[in-house]
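User: Predict the structure for this protein chain, please.
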Amino acid sequence: MAELASTPAEATDCDVGIVGGGLAGLTLALQLRQAHPALRVRVLERRDGPAPEAAHKVGESTVEIGAHYFAQVLGLRQHLESAHLKKFGFRFFFNDGADNLALCPELGPSQYLSVPTYQIDRGVFENHLADEAARRGIQVVPGARVLGCALGAGGGPHRVRWRDAAGTEQQLSCRWLVDASGRAGLLKRQLGLARGNGHAAFSVWFRVRGHVRPDDWGQVGAGDPAAWRTRCGVGQRWLSTNHLCGPGYWVWLIPLASGCHSVGIVADPAQHDFEAMKTHAGAMRWLARHQPQLHAALAASAEPPLDFGFLRSFSHDARQLFSHQRWALVGEAGRFLDPFYSPGSDFIAIGNTYVTELVGIDLGGGDLRPAARLFDAVFRSFYDNMLPLYEGQYALFGNAAAMSHKVVWDYTYYWSVLAPLFFHGRLADTALLAECAAPMQACAQLNQGMQDWLRAAAEQRGERLPRAPAFQDHTQIHWFRTLNTRLTQPAARADVARQMHEAPQVMATLAQQALQRFGPAEHAPEAAHHARLAALCAQQQRPAGTMAACG
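Assistant: Here is the predicted structure, written as structure tokens:
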């Protein structure tokens, strides 16, 4: 394999320099070396020494794209299955202020779906990634504090000034420079690429020793507590990413293989007071009011939390991620949406894949301009079209009726559009992306219409909406299960194109079911969104047969 071209005057220390040796940076290094074995890759990591177990970073829950990327694309499945926990899907409870979980609506699977996902201890995983990088001949430099970056002019090499663990200033020259520095966003800040996205939410979190087991919270006062405990397997709910939901907020519960549990509160600042929650004591007082069963389980331990962290505002955007001038932003150094559906690893996978494609084009002497422009636009569309799942939607989180439709809808959108492109290796297929632009745009319009209507219906009708099922078992929704299973099956290019063109029909049918179940709108604001969504559905030809109702 040829190395990236450079003249003697432009000799570089490495072909690709990566600033940041966390999840995004290390996985990119592995993917680059896997695709281009002769590539010289160097990673500068500020931390000096191994990452701590359990109390390292949040973002422990993976979903389908991220899990597939780690396990199959990077070949790390054995490590994931031996050192981490297999995730029992997402699970949602609507239990604000409740003292008996068995009496609260529940959404989630009763059995594992086809695509495996994982609960990852970030410290354990990142240490393994660093070891694997070293094994594959990638130089990871610990204790490297980056001081500044200078982008090369006229095709010249980029330069990074950094200070090593001994305090000596060093310089790294590289043909490609990738910012994987997380929220530090070193290159993003230097180039003035940061921008907001309109989504306001904050988060506080901590890790505790011992596992939190929601299965034990439904024994008193239920009609048949034994049946409630076993309908999702014997004591298996704790293996899910559990969402405890209420008006304007949700709480995550994520188990770790180390015997610890990650607990986080994510909330809309318009409805909950960040200042009152930015300490562990404040967060516990808030939990006592809103999640008394979780509070009681945590308070029963005499041990203090392993850590405590918070972000006043976590959602952020970037004007550009990929440049024909051979620089890129990946992971949280670029964009981050919201943790509700755990998309962080997905966007790492997508961004890293595009960087790997661009480096490959450069290796072959190709023109980077069209590919960099296209990949930036496509990633932008993925981000923008997923933003409506979260922006302005936190008011819905306490409404089980609306959420029973929203969760299934959001999954369907993800599994019908974005996931097939990644699973079947078509993320950078420029011809296919052009061919499928129209159905993908139709899906985006349907998604925006559905999110707007659900929000308006919940705001105006509240508890007058049809009741949510006591248990919406996602494994019993046949077409829903089929969408997940289809991701594991081989698909040629024509198959992926067909799936993309069928996606608007699937989504329109699902939207029509929700409109019919909720009935006519009661007031003008909802009626306008109702009419718009109905019109969007009418534009799509109904597929043969019908899908089982999601309620």
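The first strand starts at residue 14 and ends at 19.
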